[in-house]
User: Fold these one by one.
Assistant:
Number 1:
Amino acid sequence: MNKIKVSPSLLASDFGRMGEEARRIIACGADWIHCDVMDGDFVPNISFGQPMIAALRKYTDGFLDVHLMVREPGRYVEEFAAAGADMITVHAEACDHLHRTLQQIRAAGKKAGVALNPATDINVIEYVLPLCDMVLCMSVNPGFGGQKLIPEVIEKIRRLSARLRELGREDIDIQIDGGVTEENAAELRAAGVTCLVAGSSVFKAQDMAKAIAAIRGE
Ligand code: DX5
Ligand code: ZN
């Protein structure tokens, strides 16, 4: 069983001070730092790219969990790896050749994740699981922070968790991203989530350390 991790999303942070924000979440007990890269094409919003990852790398030794909401991300894998990403997650829906893109991430020496939009079934990753360290289940339609969790994703996570157990691949993390709060985290962990991304609920909290601990289930 994987350790439960919390990966606060910098999308909800103060963009003018992102390096310090990354240090702050780690000081408040975050396990990973979730970096949402948006290209304005695969998703209807633009955030930041590889120069920001390189800048963050100079500020923190924390684990940079980079979520690429980018069409054909294989074009940029080597650049994100060189910038200092520790894990690179790509969307199944955004890759014509998902298997090849995951091979590229592994060849760059990084952990590899596959993200699935709310409408995408878990069967699309069946044949790439040997190349996966994590499956990210989107619990909102990607592009924006502060949305409400789509409840159907909980059943999807139960199915994914059961399938990974069946295959003896419980080493693969199950990440949930979008609308995670202190209130719904327990149900998500019980469904099999091992890594919870949280943007607004961490950055808007009165006490960030307490919010992170509560989401982790402490
Ligand atoms: C959405 C991003 C999420 C987002 C989560 O496209 O992938 O990581 O920042 O934000 P909250 O926790 O506010 O839903
Ligand atoms: Zn994300």
Note: The first strand starts at residue 5 and ends at 8.
Number 2:
Amino acid sequence: MKRNLFFLLLLFFMFGATAIQAQQVIAHRGFWKTDGSAQNSITSLMKADSIQVYGSEVDIWLSSDGVPVVNHDADVTLDGEKLIIQDTPFATLRKVRLANGEPLPTAEEYLDAFEKCKHIKLIVEFKSHRAKEREDLLAEKIINMVRERGLEERVEYIAFGINFVQQARKLAPNAPVYYLNGDLSPKVLDTMKLSGFDYHYNVVYKKPDWVKEAHALGQKVNVWTVNKPEDIQKIIDLKVDFITTDEPLRVKEMLQAQ
Ligand code: MG
């Protein structure tokens, strides 16, 4: 009897573990390749939620007067003029319209919208700034906003900059934090107490053993930005945990077909 129970439990954990280890999709800059959407728009966040992927990625900068805003590039174009976000006050940045007509969102507005999402995690990318103090301020502001809204369990952090991943690890000790820059081995990331790497697929093609090394250290692996079917298949075969893509429906479909 006891023996049967043991095998039942064993089966349960084996299947449970399989389910947990399923590969997951992250919509890069939201789900933007669809009607009415645009990269890093609030619409792209809600659309990512509607297709029930694991997460939606978003890029965050700090304006010159300390307002965290959502945008990928370091600059925006307003009336034909290029403006560097970190040198521009929020009132000016606010006049910028995204490709779908939405005003450039603040991080607050983005998090308010995210609170209404039912399925996804938010993957926050801290963009590298010139001054360490600005980066520290940005990390502090965002992590406080997340905490105030009780969203700690639903937000993960990524960055190319070492300072940012260290700040995120310090200020949000329980949050998943991944490093993007492609140059550090899982062993080094382990000493930094990071959750794993989130590297370009070319890095992972050159260092496929890093996936196994990361898993052996209890880390997770994310790969960006995987869009072409042949790359998606290669990355699926490498058994990474997360696939960040501009084609979330395509990746989802390919994963379901495995
Ligand atoms: Mg990004």
Note: Confidence is low (pLDDT under 50) at residues 16-20.
Number 3:
Amino acid sequence: MPAATRAVASPLRIDGLVKRYGAHTVVDQLSLSVAPGECFALLGPNGAGKTTTLRCALGLTTPDAGQITLCGEPVPARAREARMRVGVVPQFDNLDPDFTCTENLRVFGRYFGIDAATLRERTPALLEFAGLAHKADARIQDLSGGMKRRLTLARALVNRPELLLLDEPSTGLDPQARHLIWRRLKQLVADGTSVLLTTHFMDEAERLADRLAIMDNGRILATGSPREVIAAHIEPHVVEVYGDWPEGMAAWVCTHGEPLSVRCELSGDTAFCYVNDTTALLAHLAQQGALRYLHRPANLEDVFLKLTGRDLRD
Ligand code: ADP
């Protein structure tokens, strides 16, 4: 499903974006750019400002400050023209329930001024891409959640976009459906489509993104490739120590953390010990018969929790 043209300039560039609702600054001097043919993930907890950033990028929300260039067009001034070259997969499926899968694609295509013959030609390939060829004449209410999301993805490709924007593409999907969406997104990027997605699933970002930004409270806290972000923001090793006595764990962490050069975070019945060198810690743990522990490399979720905290959102 190749993009109509391979863009040579950045398909999306945001500089110093600010959006306020009343006294609440929900996007605060945010800058990012998506390179041609890359997948960029915007990560953040609920309320971080991801959707607002996407809406501003599309010209659907008017920013208070900042410059946005989408597919070479200034936004919001020429947002309509820019949107003609963009595909959008919103967080909540907004397919037309009165139409079949085929009809949904064709009606959507008409918004882009695509003629009927071209739409007739494109529709089977889009349904095939979404794994919905057998559902061409099915109504939306007869589709599973995963099928609806795949159809929304196919619909977003009807205009052969240079840039695909996806707001939490796999939220609410089961693992099988998520993996299929991921395969399709990888295929699109390999074919030259640029992708910007928001997510709060670290594995999604780690698997798909060439580069990512972690944001919270409207600001970018870290950016780079997944590897770069991990290397720059957290110790390379994590030892998770389990116990069913939180007070005891806290005492253990306090007593042993510092001498063993360990940075510890306590969460429930687990102490997360972050270390540059595991030798001393693992030797010490081996002598503690009552403790269970797991040694693993640090990952994006560790960075995310370090930068955005372990407190519940919502
Ligand atoms: P995310 O997508 O990262 O979950 P959002 O961009 O949806 O975050 O929201 C960021 C913050 O802006 C939240 O605190 C949200 O309540 C607030 N917000 C979003 N839209 C509006 C609006 N139309 N009016 C007032 N506040 C809003």
Note: The chain has two domains: 12-225, 235-297.
Number 4:
Amino acid sequence: MTAQRTRVLSGIQPSGTKHLGNYFGAIKQHLELQHEHPGEAYYFIADYHALTSLRDAAALRASSLELARTYLALGLDPDKALLFRQSDVPEVTELAWLLATVTGMGLLERAHSYKDKLQNGIKPTVGLFSYPVLMAADILIYDATLVPVGKDQIQHVEMTQDMATHFNEAYGSGGDLLVRPEFRLSEAPFVIGTDGQKMSTSYGNTLPLFESGKRLRKLVSAIVTDSTPLGAPLAPERCSVFALLQLFAAPAELERISSHYRAGIRDGEPFGYGHAKLLLAEYIEQHFAAARARKEHLLAHPDEVEAVLKRSAIRARQTARATIDRCKRACGLA
Ligand code: ADP
Ligand code: TRP
């Protein structure tokens, strides 16, 4: 198997409403990569993985669809990228078993993510422990070469590289049955939350992507700032609101906002955090206006979402079938 071409793959957990951290930290890059590698971008909703922490069929179904709508609304182009449910390609669980048989316990025992999840009170099932094996199968079954992920997932991609090597050594008879992937970190790996920590669903400090109007302004107004009185000079580099504005405003505009901060004045009037927050709410609202409208449309047309998921799964399955057949033959199966 030679792998000169780039094939992009990533899995996304269908949990919760997506927020600015998810967008700037992950989704935006996924969407850019579909244009850089049209026809070679595979994105899937990690619903088999979600079962390790979610046991509510209706909730899983709903959040999988919500995630699909979110990606389509934000610009996933079904002519350039595939968007499918992990569970619509059951071959991935077959490959996970083959990989499990060449994976040492020690490799999985070193996984940070497993230890973190136990600390967060998730039940230590065999599924949770072997999560990295299923994740490796997700990547290897599509011959993916490039896996855009957040920092917390780097170790999982490295484990995938090890599993590919072990499998190739065991069964490859000198050639490569499985392609070793590389990870890619996004350029904006850290989006700050309303409380000044990393924005995360589990901290309850998020700004959801599709909020607007009064509700959005209310969420933005909750961003924690210091108690500098209105009209006094402010330090933009120490302000969470400014950090978030940097995600949206063009450099010249940021320069202007920054000068308002430092002067504590804008157009002869006092300028304070409240003004900066209003500005941020406007930026967010505008930036996602078109996506919000598309999401509303998709909400009213679930058949359009389902059609993309089904069509993508058929294509993804063809690739998966070829890999699993090759691997099974090499092991003496089939
Ligand atoms: P959450 O913390 O809300 O549960 P996830 O852990 O599911 O988010 O993250 C999904 C993707 O979004 C990952 O690729 C992760 O790196 C990215 N991401 C999440 N929060 C942030 C953030 N605050 N800044 C940058 N990227 C983020
Ligand atoms: N583990 C990833 C996360 O929690 C999701 C995921 C599952 C994934 N399989 C993958 C990411 C394969 C990249 C490639 O975010």
Note: The two ends are 20 Å apart (CA to CA).
